[in-house]
Amino acid sequence: MIEEMPQGRSFFHRPNLADIARKILGATGWLRPVRLSLAGLSAAAILAGCESSSVADKVLDDKALKPPPSMVEETFGRGSTEITLLLTRSPGGLYDGAARDIRDGAALAIGELDDAGVMKIKVIDVTQGPAAVAPALVAAKARNSGLLISYAPQATTAAIAAVPADQRPPLINLSSPVSGAKVFNFGFDEVASAARGVRSAIAAGQKKVLVLAPNTLAGVDEERLRSAIGQAGGALIGVVRYDPAGPPGDLLTRNKALLDDAGALVLMGDSAAVGPILKAARTSFSKLVVVGTSHWPTELHADPAAANVIIAGIDPDASQLIGERYRRFNKRSLTVYAAEGYDSIAVAAGIVRGKGAAALTPEALMTKTGFRGVTGLFRFTPSGMAEHKIGLYRIDGGRLVAIEPKAVSF
To answer: Most buried by CB count within 10 Å: which residue of 70, 229, 280, 404?
Structure first.
């Protein structure tokens, strides 16, 4: 659960096996147990407005639920306060990858946190791009939507932000940043994670930095990383791109001179390709200090090759809180995208529960004390960007172990 932070206190509580669902009361920060059956939680968190026992039974029997076909319009929850989730589908007609994780993280949040049943999530397909935005927002306004959450290509998100602020609800954007009135960019930035992590290696004397990144890394993000490394006293000696959909091949052999010269290696990416690249780097260049990112597949943490890797990312204690339930319902590990989907809904749930649907305003989102969620401590600023207190960790025994005190407030 997430709530506005009174004096920096955490609102997370680790559930025990006998009482899997723990809820949070109001803005006081005090926890109370709530009787919530696994079947009830599963149905609320997984399927739109569906209370069928057969659906819950399928979840409890550990049978994976297939993504709905493109003709299905999804609604999660049963309340009257709508949160509109704008996503794009894959060419196969399904929500896949990050979009799927965001949707499933949001679904889990509405099932766990809206115990009063006052909210619902309406999932809207904007695969057609900017042309789909205007009709989608007109329909959302007609339904009295209180908040927009989007994960879409930048042109589509920019089209959402360009709609006059009095003609749409506030927007929480989980994709590439855009600017506009009542727009809040929340995406947990991999570049920020990499920059924060490598700062530790530079401070320890490893000033020559090589970056291995997916070929999707934008040029502007490369420049941001270069600037951050320079400000920390390091030097970016190269950025090597790889295909996240293919095998690493001779990637390291072709760049042996750079790897020999580097003191620290930043390995970016969220695909299965990260694992083989990491193993090869650890085998052939064992002296390198390796810096990972918040977007690494969490399964990779348990690989012996990941030992002592530095990662700046989300609070592992917070992610573990919902990670087990997310895995049980969705048959895969919690990702940073799923955590963003969960926190976006949790922010809205905390505001609506404490002050009512009318309080879901930009001013409420920009509380100076911020929020603590699965993604850690954060707050939305008047600039439209989210300020994150990113924790610094080292992988030890398959776990993220803090190597500096956690931030408790802004």
So the answer is: 229
Q: Report the amino acid identity of residue 59.
A: V
Q: Can you state the angle between helices 97-113 and 316-330, rounded to 10 degrees? A: 100
**Closest to 278 measured CA to CA, from 314, 312, 239, 252:** 252
Give the CATH number of domain 3-188+316-391.
Answer: 3.40.50.2300
Q: Which residues are CB-neighbours of 291 under 8 A, at least 6 positions away? A: 194, 197, 198, 200, 201, 264, 265, 266, 267, 309, 310, 311
Cβ neighbours, 10 Å, residue 331:
12
DSSP 167: G
Please give the model's pTM, rounded to 2 decimal places. Answer: 0.75
For the chain, the domains span 3-188+316-391, 190-313
3-state secondary structure of 149: strand
> In sequence order, what DSSP letters do the residues of 288-337 get, joined into one string?
SEEE--TTS-GGGGGSGGGTT-EEEES-HHHHHHHHHHHHHHHSS---HH
Question: What are the pLDDT digits (tens) for 204-249?
Answer: 999 999 999 999 998 889 999 999 999 999 999 999 999 998 777 7
